[in-house]
Specification:
CATH superfamily: HybD-like
Distance between the termini: 34 Å
Number of helices: 4
Shape: globular
Number of strands: 5
Structural class: alpha/beta
CATH class: Alpha Beta
Order of helices and strands: EHEEEHEHH
Strand content: 15-25%
Largest sheet: 5 strands, mixed
Oligomer: single chain
CATH architecture: 3-Layer(aba) Sandwich
Helix content: 25-40%
Strand order of the largest sheet: 2-1-3-5-4
Radius of gyration: 15 Å
Length: 162
Amino acid sequence: MTAPVVIFAVGNPSRGDDALGPLLAGRLAAWLEAEGLRGRIEIVEDFQLQIEHALDLEGRQLALFIDAGAGTPAPFVLRRIAPSAAVAHSTHALAPEAVLEVFRRTMRQEPPPSYVLCVAGAAFGLGEPLTAAAGINADAAFAKLQALCRAPELPLREEQAA
C-alpha cells in the first residue's frame, strides 16, 4: 500500500548545514513511529534528487521536499511548487520542480500538490559540522513538519484561505 504523503529529505551529512534534510528525516521517522503515523507518510532520503524519484510520486496525494538553503530567510520557507521544464537539470541531480516535470512527462498526468520546505543554512563545506543557527532553524522546521504530518491538507487549506 502506497502512503498518501511522500517526503523527500535531501542533503549530505558530510557537508555542514546540508545535513539538515537527513537530520530532519531521522527525527521525523522516529516521531511518526511514536505517533502511529508511519503508514500515512513515506520518507525518501537521498543526497540529491534524481529522475528516478519521479516514480516515488505515483499514487500520492501530497509531496514535500525538505532541503537546506543558502540565503534562505531563517528559520525556513515553505512554498508550493509546480512542474517546470525551465529548471535546468541533467541525469546527475534535479530541482524538485524538475522531478515534478519528469513525473508529468513520464506518467502523462499531473503530479500531486507539492511543496518545498527550505531550511536556512549557512555553512556547507566538506567536513564542517552543523552550525548552531542551523540547529535552531531545524527545531522550528521540525515543529512545522509535525503540524503538516498531523494535517497534510493544511498547506492546501492555507492557500485557499489566502
